[in-house]
Design brief:
globular; about 280 residues; mainly alpha
């Protein structure tokens, strides 16, 4: 199969697009359920700390229960769950109660499909291509979870860090020593900013999940990319924040998630990492 894809790059890119659409549908589940799973886990831990027996809860994970309409509880059938197409055919409404289905679901699927096709077009059916796909899928899920909840789950950021080190055992994206230093430098860079800001203002400027996400990106791309990723994420984040304050009249005290901008900078590093490194004199 790899030989077939190697001799037919168009087939490989098209297959990556279809795979990305399917993965995008799964990412919608991840985005919705992982924060709820975290909340349930916190409730169990809090009950145990109080010396109480946690209340029995029905299974709730990425596979159980089956997806249903939040308005009427209608179980979503396979034909109603075809990425993008089902939403278009149903005109963005539940097949049973006709309540509106947010457009974000097909947007996540389409973005995942397009970025997956882009990854294979750039890296081919190789170890780097597989790594680019995994990194892209994680960053999409983390972006939307952070937008929704201002949380970056350890179960995802730490796994992403270890995957980066795993791929770089063979130097797929950067030599392993640089990846290890990158993971440390990424964490310590934002950790230092956090404490300097807190000592100066008495406020928390970001969450620990941001430290771990930057550490993960350092594990994928090496320490040389850390300055560029921080700068890109900060510039875009500041621009968006100012725009929200001026245009939407969002209060200055309303927190803005930083994870999506780190994720966007990470995707840029994936494709234009070498020029970015040279820009900072680290290439």
């Amino acid at each position: 199969m790899i030989e077939v894809f190697a001799t037919n790059p168009g087939l490989a890119v098209g297959s990556a697009m279809l795979l990305g659409l399917v993965i995008g549908s799964f990412l919608n589940v991840v985005i919705f359920r992982v924060p709820r799973m975290m909340e349930l886990a916190w409730q169990r831990e809090a009950a145990e700390l109080r010396g109480e027996t946690p209340a029995e809860q029905p299974p709730f994970n990425l596979m159980t229960p089956a997806s249903t309409c939040p308005s009427c509880g209608h179980k979503i059938r396979p034909l109603e769950n075809i990425p993008v197409l089902s939403w278009l055919v149903l005109r963005g409404r539940c097949a049973n109660c006709h309540s509106s289905i947010p457009a974000r679901y097909p947007v996540v699927e389409l973005v995942t499909g397009l970025l997956s096709a882009m990854a294979i077009a750039e890296f081919g059916v190789t170890a780097a291509g597989a790594g680019a796909l995994l990194l892209t899928w994680f960053l999409i899920a983390l972006t939307f979870i952070d937008f929704d909840t201002q949380l970056l789950p350890d179960s995802m950021t730490l796994l992403l860090l270890w995957l980066g080190l795993l791929f770089n055992l063979w130097g797929v994206f950067t030599p392993l020593p640089w990846a290890v230093i990158g993971a440390m430098a990424g964490y310590l860079a934002l950790w230092s900013v956090y404490w300097l800001f807190k000592l100066a203002t008495g406020k928390e400027g970001m969450g620990y999940g941001d430290f771990k996400l930057l550490a993960a990106l350092g594990a994928w791309f090496g320490w040389q990319m850390i300055p560029a990723i921080i700068l890109l994420a900060s510039v875009v984040g500041a621009t968006v924040g100012i725009a929200l304050i001026l245009v939407v009249r969002r209060g200055r005290d309303v927190p803005i998630p930083f994870g999506p901008y780190l994720a966007g900078a990470g995707l840029l590093a994936l494709y234009v990492g070498a020029p970015l490194s040279r820009l900072f004199g680290l290439g």
